[in-house]
Amino acid sequence: MFDLNGKRALVTGASGGIGREIAKALSAAGASVALSGTRVGALEDTAKEIGKDCPILPCNLSNLDEVDKLVPAAEEALGGLDILVNNAGMTRDNIFMRMKNEEWDEVIAVNLTAAFHLSRAVLRGMMKQRFGRIINVSSVVGVMGNPGQGNYAASKAGIIGMGKALAHEVASRNITVNAIAPGFIASAMTDELNDKQREGILGTIPAGRLGTAAEVAACAVFLASDAAGYVTGHTLNVNGGMAMI
Amino acid sequence: MSDIADRVRKIVVEHLNVDAEKVTEKASFIDDLGADSLDQVELVMAFEEEFSVEIPDDAAEQIQTFGDAVSFLEKAVG
């Protein structure tokens, strides 16, 4: 149903849990996928899991010179780009009264500014070919807020607003821009929670369990597909009912 | 009319879907020919491709009319 054969995708943060699943799912649906991230070894592992020839494009998203080379590199490797998944993200948690300027700046740079640069860079090709899918991975935290994550929440709310503005601009060119806002997803990070913390979290989730990265990736496949051509400026909440908005 | 003007007019007519006689020297892409700001960006992209030149953003912003485009490209290509 969601056929991506012939489509070319760039996924940032493809070494991490959700990014890796998104890359795998896009590839399984038929897309050629370029993998970006900071850890080359982890990207190679992702490529191995995919089992196809995936260009590996290491990039430090806090360095704008590197960021601005990423899209041209992906377009060259794949012969163009149809799908951009801005998935890479980082946290530097601290309460407001203790948050350092650098902690604020670094998170905004990687989670929001890099996504802006990459989105701007793919537009030229997508406008010409009259097809494009930009998918921004946000977070339930961007919608609801979370103590200790003022910088992260701002960046994740920021990409929702940024994407909506862009969705207005390019809708007439058959380019859609959407966000996915995952809730608590099982990952290396959630594995470290103790039983009490885990219970506390699960109590806020009507589904009574954590989500899986594959459940987030499935949404990316849908939004990337032709089937989602009339869906733009939307935020798909994938949170087990934790926030019904 | 120069060859450059003819090529520019062809692009404008095709892209904005307007009659060639409306594309006069003073015709503003936005005010007279129904372009929006994204069309204007796309026109500049099309000019760049047709004439194999790079039009920097600040120059692109100055290109408001058909005449502006022709005179810029005559200088750039010329």
From TrEMBL, chain A:
E.C. number(s) listed in UniProt: 1.1.1.100
UniProt keywords, alphabetically: Fatty acid biosynthesis, Fatty acid metabolism, Lipid biosynthesis, Lipid metabolism, NADP, Oxidoreductase
Pathway: Lipid metabolism; fatty acid biosynthesis
Cell wall biogenesis/degradation found in the keyword field: no
Claim: Transcription regulation is one of the keywords in the record: no
Gene Ontology biological-process annotations: fatty acid biosynthetic process
GO MF, any single term: NAD binding
Reaction(s) catalysed by this chain's protein: a (3R)-hydroxyacyl-[ACP] + NADP(+) = a 3-oxoacyl-[ACP] + NADPH + H(+)
Signal sequence interval, chain numbering: none
Domain Ketoreductase: 7-188
A Pfam family the protein falls into: adh_short_C2
Binding-site positions, NADP(+): T38, N87, Y152, A153, A154, S155, K156, I185
Catalytic residues (UniProt): Y152 (proton acceptor)
Oligomer and partners: Homotetramer.
Protein family (similarity comment): Belongs to the short-chain dehydrogenases/reductases (SDR) family.
Main function: Catalyzes the NADPH-dependent reduction of beta-ketoacyl-ACP substrates to beta-hydroxyacyl-ACP products, the first reductive step in the elongation cycle of fatty acid biosynthesis.
Family annotation (PANTHER family): 3-OXOACYL-(ACYL-CARRIER-PROTEIN) REDUCTASE (PTHR42879), 3-OXOACYL-[ACYL-CARRIER-PROTEIN] REDUCTASE FABG (PTHR42879:SF2)
UniProt name for this protein: 3-oxoacyl-[acyl-carrier-protein] reductase
Source organism phylogeny: Bacteria, Pseudomonadati, Pseudomonadota, Alphaproteobacteria, Hyphomicrobiales
Automatic annotation (TrEMBL), chain B:
Keyword Transmembrane helix set for record: no
Pathway where it operates: Glycolipid biosynthesis; KDO(2)-lipid A biosynthesis; Lipid metabolism; fatty acid biosynthesis
GO CC, one annotated term: membrane
Keyword NAD (UniProt): no
Any one biological process term the GO annotation gives: lipid A biosynthetic process
Maturation and modification: 4'-phosphopantetheine is transferred from CoA to a specific serine of apo-ACP by acpS. 4'-phosphopantetheine is transferred from CoA to a specific serine of apo-ACP by AcpS. This modification is essential for activity because fatty acids are bound in thioester linkage to the sulfhydryl of the prosthetic group.
Entry's localization field: Cytoplasm
Domain Carrier: start-end pairs: 2-77
Source organism, top-level taxon: Bacteria
Modified positions (O-(pantetheine 4'-phosphoryl)serine) in chain numbering: S37
Major localization class: cytoplasm
Keywords noted in UniProt: Cytoplasm, Fatty acid biosynthesis, Fatty acid metabolism, Lipid biosynthesis, Lipid metabolism, Phosphopantetheine, Phosphoprotein
Gene Ontology MF terms: acyl binding; acyl carrier activity
Functional summary from the UniProt entry: Carrier of the growing fatty acid chain in fatty acid biosynthesis.
PANTHER family: ACYL CARRIER PROTEIN, CARRIER DOMAIN-CONTAINING PROTEIN
Family in the record: Belongs to the acyl carrier protein (ACP) family.
Record-given protein name: Acyl carrier protein
Source lineage: Bacteria, Pseudomonadati, Pseudomonadota, Alphaproteobacteria, Hyphomicrobiales
Gene (UniProt): acpP
